[in-house]
What we know:
- It is a single chain.
- This protein has four helices and 41 strands.
- By secondary structure, it is mostly beta strands.
- The protein has a 22-stranded antiparallel beta barrel.
- The longest helix is centred in the N-terminal third of the chain and has 9 residues, at 2-10.
Amino acid sequence: MKRFFILALLMAPLATSAQKEVELQEVTVRGSKVVQRVDGQTIYPTRQQLESSTNGYSLLSKLTLPHLRIDPVMHTITALSNLGSVQVRINDIVASKEDLLTLDMKAVQSIDFIDNPGVRYSEGIAYVVNIVVKKPVSGFDIGADLTNTLTAVNGDETIFGKFNLGKSEFGVNYSLGYQNFKGTKFEEHATYELESRETRDILRQQLDGQNKSFSHNVQLSYSLSDSNYVFQSKLSDQHDIHPHRSWAKFETYEDYNSSRTSSPVLDIYFHRNFRCNQSLTANVVGTYIKTDSYSEHNDGGNYAYNVTGHTYSLWAEAVYEKRLRSFALSLGSQYGQTYINNVYSGDANANNSMRSSMLYFFGQLKGRLGKLGFMGGLGVSTRYYRQAGWNDHFLLFRPKLTVSYPLAKNLKAKYDFEVSQHASQIALVSDVSIKKNAMETLVGNPKITPNRVTSHDFRLTYSTPKIMTELQGYWRLNANCNMEKYTRKDGHFYQTQTNAGNECSFFFIQSYNRWEAIPEHLSITIYGGIYRFFNFTDDYRHTYTAFNGGANIEAYLGRWALTAYADNGWNFMEGEHRGHQAPTCYLSASYQLKNITLSLYAQHPFCAHPLTSKTEVLSRYIHKETSQHNRNLGNMLTLNFTWHLSSGRKYRDIKRTMNHRDTETGILQSK
């Protein structure tokens, strides 16, 4: 398989094709269905892709976006890289899972895939997928999206309704999710070196286990819009009907975890257009998270603790935009305030209260000088943390510059340079210690400071209406970065985070190729690259080379749509961990009949116990190999039923909708 990928990557497409018209309902696009931009690309889905897609996840999975894995069954979007996370938006504002499941395919105009986000986006965001849709101004749309696995207990059910009355739109949706997996198998081989140079080998092998959850979410929304303004408000609540439980039985002990959360969110958004191509956007989001959890880790003796957590957060953003003929200016600010109070009782006795605040200012200029496209910006943020007797204040800068230039017809070069500061997750800077097993304890470190991240990204892109191929070279240096460290004392080992004199860097060379073999009917995508990782500290020097790649085939035959996707996972090394994200493979077939679509997904075919994760710890004191398999995911068959009924729907273009949610609880967990 690797030879096939490498051979395909070395074959640079040289064919050219005449331009043609692609008609997408009310929009006609001349030229390629993929338009290259300085910060990414704009993709115009074909009529077949839109008609065969049941929701936002289904549509995005058909586009095979570089570096992203979209699972249309589990409703997840994963960034297959160490560059950061992925953020999905609808009309430029963060979208929830419910927004994607209730997406109206008739309203979709294009998808902006931003793989080079500007300074407006938050730190740690590596990819932004913005779905541009038309705003309905009349009629109603009701429907259901029901996903149920036939070979395991797993489902995600959503019903929704959207109603327009004049300039107002009222929306409601309810979703119910459940899962009960009993086929998880965990195995760990560990070798510990004690102070006496004696080694101790331990095998932790799970004999039985269960992981189950049952939760629901309700969302109410109201919007008032005209051609010059949009006001929207959204109230949602996620709640576990029963606690999320996981249980694992080993030869001499059992582990048990139970947690229950609820999270109401209020989101208020306003956008206004002014004269001379000016606009102002404001968004305020308030989030509350309540968590009750219980954990037992009985390796080496009884060890149990409870956590009662309360998180309150406020996030606000204001953005001013001015568009001229050859460039656009954006100025804005973001403000965040978070208070976390986590009370640990039992064997992990602690009262962890943390306050953090963030104030961020940014300015960005994006435009064109002749054939040269450019995007430059600067972000400045101030961050404050306080817990118990410790507090700290950081001033962080984020300069960014991107330039692109056409070297020849259909061939474009692009270079991006960025310096940013990375702040650790709140849980990692807590002063709480959690026992993982008889030999190890996880320790928070409140003295961690943000580290500087410098990146260089160079790309060559060749595109025609039938062929798009991209060669990318990327290098990232994390100076003084936050990396894990193991220490030992009295025969026990402590895992923590530190950033004193550490350096973590990596580079990769990757090729992405998409070929419209039979336009509108058959397309083939192949991507892959070589990755090299470097992790240097005073205690260790680790390097690692990996190949990561995948392929996708789509076929549209009348009412039928067929898809085959496979990748080898994501192999990487960070700190003292070498990680192997599990490979995946799925086949899908969907059939459309008027306003009903039936889809069948086969995941991990011909594999009874697929690997879900594998890690190695390469500490000077500890060597561990950990793997996890899940029988429920093997030969997994899932049926999706989608029903839409709409009447009187008329649309007009609009810039944005809304959604923002805080999910960080600050709770330190051993696994």
